[in-house]
Amino acid sequence: EVQLVETGGGLIQPGGTLRLSCAASGFTVNINYMSWVRQAPGKGLELVSVMYSGGSAYYADSVKGRFTISRDNSKNTVSLQMNSLRAEDTAIYFCARGIAGSDYAFDYWGQGTLVTVSS
Amino acid sequence: QSALTQPASVSGSPGQSITISCTGSSSDVGGYNYVSWYQQHPNKAPKLLIYDVNNRPSGVSNRFSGSKSGNTASLTISGLQAEDEADYYCSSYTASTALSFVFGTGTKVTV
């Protein structure tokens, strides 16, 4: 059974650093493309970052230069390093798996982890 | 890259059919067959309903169907049920950004 479990969220001051982790089971993270999607309170979905099986990574303009996605094949995890956090980064962060057979859809999602950026 | 445009809300009675639109441009919805649809219940993770315009993942009810015409994609829910009350988001490949994905603004469906 495919499962994604995010950890690492919490309350952090503006300018601070946080690292989110997504533990995958039921598949290997280096086979599918993986992503982080966030949802600010009461708002819609925003794709933050995606990493493809070959290792290439892309970011939303709003986080470029501040966030870094990475993958640990030995632990079967995907992480999101978030630096220079801002109030507008406050959101639930979901880890999602790219569906096999298509490059542009996510078939499994974690339950999400809440990041609150506030002083 | 601006979000794809969806109606804020759509409502229907049990048993009816409703359609949610998702309007973009030739750089996303209109130019590629990579539209997907997600359902999200309150305080839950999104669930994939449709991918590549009209493909359903295994386990998704055939009451959900997708289509596209020009720059507008649509999700139709037939035989509306109480459990269909949720938020719905479209998504598309976009050639406008390196990230290549754009989500819609979201639609609240009330049954």
Report on this model:
The complex is a heterodimer of chains A (about 120) and B (about 110). Chain A is mostly beta strands. Chain A is built from no helices and eleven strands. Chain A has strands at about 5, 10, 20-25, 35-40, 45-50, 55-60, 65-70, 75-80, 90-100, 105-110, 115. Chain B is mainly beta and about 110 residues long. Chain B is about 0% helix and about 40% strand. Chain B contains no helices and nine strands. In chain B, the strands form two sheets. In chain B, strands 1, 3, 4, 7, 8 and 9 form a six-stranded mixed beta sheet that branches. Chain B has a three-stranded antiparallel beta sheet with strand order 2-6-5, with no helix packed on it. In chain B, strand 5 (about 65-70) and strand 6 (about 70-75) form a beta hairpin. Chain B is globular, with a radius of gyration of 13 Å. The interface of A and B includes residues 44, 105 and 109 of A.
Largest interface: A-B, 25 and 27 residues
The number of helical segments of chain B is 0
Sketch the topology of chain A as an H/E string, one letter per element: EEEEEEEEEEE
Provide the low-confidence segments of chain B as ranges: none
Number of strands of chain A: 11
Sequence stretches where pLDDT stays below 50 over 5 or more residues of chain A: none
Q: Structural class given helices, strands, pairing of chain B?
A: mainly beta
Largest sheet of chain B: 6 strands, mixed
Mean pLDDT of chain B: 96
